[in-house]
Amino acid sequence: LGIFVADISFSGNKIPSTGETILGDSYNIGPGGKGCNQAIAISRLGGKVNFISKLGNDDYGKLAIDKLKKDNIDTSSIIISNKHQTGVAGIHVDRNTGKNAITVVRGAPASLTVEEINTNIIKQSKIFLTQLEIPKKVTLHCLRVAKESGLINILNPAPACELNNDFFRLVDYFTPNETEAEFYTGIKIVDTTSAEKASKKFLEWGVNLVVIKMGEAGAFFASAQENGLIEGFKTSVLDTTGAGAAFN
After folding, report:
1. Could you tell me the CA-to-CA distances from 149 to 112, 127, 174, 177 in Å, in that order?
2. pLDDT tens-digit profile of 90-149?
3. Of 6, 186, 210, 225, which residue is the least packed, with the fewest Cβ within 10 Å?
4. CB 224: neighbour CB atoms within 10 A?
5. What is the pTM of this model?
6. Separation CA 26–CA 125 (nearest Å)
7. How far is it, in rounded angstroms, from Cα 11 to Cα 27?
């Protein structure tokens, strides 16, 4: 369950500050959105994926369907709306560091309702993976259906927003980055000690296993039985766009 947006990426020598205009060196338009990124990654790894989302009946919507089908993703649960536009994202990438700044306009998925969800698709699956780009009421409903049906639930809690305890109790794997972990717990993630403190809060709230994505430092994981840091691979970074989604 997630969104597709048409990513419009701009590459330049830096990410512009407020009020600043810079000259970029390239741009690209392609598929994006955390849900779409995750679906494509899973399919390319050999998984059988059904993508639940909503698109506008427009050029970007057609781009989405074509792209998803080429990656062997089942699109039968995607709703096409004549009233809403397909979402877009504007991405500024610093080509020197690979870091980015993103503005997402969700478009059609923002109007998705509980009544539009085909829960049979969820019940027939093994793993339910989602984020917080879909309306929270719909996400919570689907997490509950998945949990009652015995699925493994994975929640990538982005973009960070206020959640009630029901969310945490329904999640098997909770995968925030440092910024999101701080948003939910109030603990700034600067090392493994602070990551462990934040993880304990998530576990107390009902999550089964926490994985805090810590960029180049790696990923800190914690369950009731064990915790530790998995160090990141050393590599030169061209662009971090979609890295969190691919991680999930």
Report:
1. 22, 10, 19, 28
2. 999 998 888 888 888 889 999 999 999 999 999 999 999 999 999 999 999 999 999 999
3. 225
4. 9
5. 0.89
6. 40
7. 6
